[in-house]
Amino acid sequence: MHSAATHRTPPTVARPEVQALRSSKIREVANAGMDRKDVLPFWFGEPDEETPDEICSAAVAALESKRTFYVQTLGDPALREEIAAYLSRWHGRIGVERIAVTSSGTHALMLALQALLNPGDRVVAVTPLWPNLVEMPKVLGAHVETVALEFSAAGWALDEQRLFDALVPGTRALLLNAPNNPTGWTISREMQEAILAHCRRLGIWIVSDDVYQRICFDAPCAPSFLDIAAPEDRVISCNSFSKAWRMTGWRLGWIVVPPAMLGDIGKLIEYSSTCAPPFVQAAGLVALSRGEGAIARTVERLRQGRDHLAARLGQVPGVDLAAPAGGAMYTFFRVDGVEDSLAFCKQLVTGAGLGLAPGAAFGPEGEGYLRWCYASSTSRLDEGVRRLAGYLENNPITR
Ligand SMILES: Cc1ncc(COP(=O)(O)O)c(C=O)c1O
What we know:
The structure is a single chain. This protein has helices at about 15-20, 25-35, 55-65, 75-90, 105-115, 130-140, 160-165, 190-200, 225-230, 260-270, 280-290, 290-315, 340-350, 380-395; strands spanning about 40, 100, 120-125, 145-150, 150, 155, 175, 205-210, 235-240, 255, 320, 330-335, 355, 355-360, 370-375. The chain is of the alpha/beta class. The chain folds into two domains: about 20-50 and about 295-395, Aspartate Aminotransferase, domain 1 (Alpha-Beta Complex), CATH 3.90.1150.10; about 55-290, 3-Layer(aba) Sandwich (Aspartate Aminotransferase, domain 2). Helix 4 packs parallel to helix 11 (about 280-290), helix 5 (about 105-115) crosses helix 10 (about 260-270) and helix 12 runs parallel beside helix 14. The relative contact order is 0.17. The structure holds pyridoxal-5'-phosphate.
């Protein structure tokens, strides 16, 4: 028999890198208000409309025909072909030899990072950014440096030189999300070309989070590195059915990698999820082949939401707002005097019945800001603004 004196067992906790991960501050606010019926929530990034019927019916039909068994690790060949055809319509030829189906955009991003990162690797991320993307490399022991977008009345912008100064030799990967969560910032083709040339020179991988690519207000599809990169370039594109096709709960996405990497991505899928559920993949196939009308309606509604919210918020004294951004589904704004966004968001939940995401959730660069997801009806947005304005009037912020 072992005694404590002779045999010391390690404490029953996760390894230090995992313990050090930050938990989501968006969740922290949501957990404080989710059970309250009087709270109007705008904290999560998802359309408030359901998945289109045609997509749901495809999953139901697949279940009725008992497509309930394990399927190919890289995805149903028919879906991979459909993704290839879809991507080729936007970006020029992208072949199935580069494509794997994943169990969400989050999964695609984690696979990309697992394929690339060693402990101690240096990664650069453009922030403010969806918090998961900054924490995920840390699960693998990598070190994340950030380059902040800059805020002005004209909108959010990336200073190219500051980015290049951070992308020094030895950097393993650049993580970029455009259209961006939380700022809505979109990247120009010229800047993509300059970044690709810089990363090519230094052998740096670009991991492009393209999940808001179709939620773009200036073009039917936002510029992508896939448009300009050769198949053999160090570029990985991660995508999702969640946002454009309104399928957040389905957990389906895809990844595009250089052809030589696809076999190893297959191994990582095998050892993380085995395969995406076949009936969910059946729904994804219909989304891609017949979903364009639904995307167009979603984007139009989001455009209305974006413009409506900007106009109304702009009238609230103390609110500092940039010009409406080109993509995604968020307004990222400041309220005069708010320094601790987490505490302020918690006060809004209890004091105003309003659920927003704290800017601090998106990195230190986001502190002082609030994120409002405008994927909602204009009447709900109006009610939200009314609650914010009322709260600020009754609880003036003192500095
Ligand atoms: C920037 C960004 N990337 C990736 C995702 C993940 O999407 P999903 O895992 O639902 O496919 C999200 C979700 O909010 C996001 O905002």
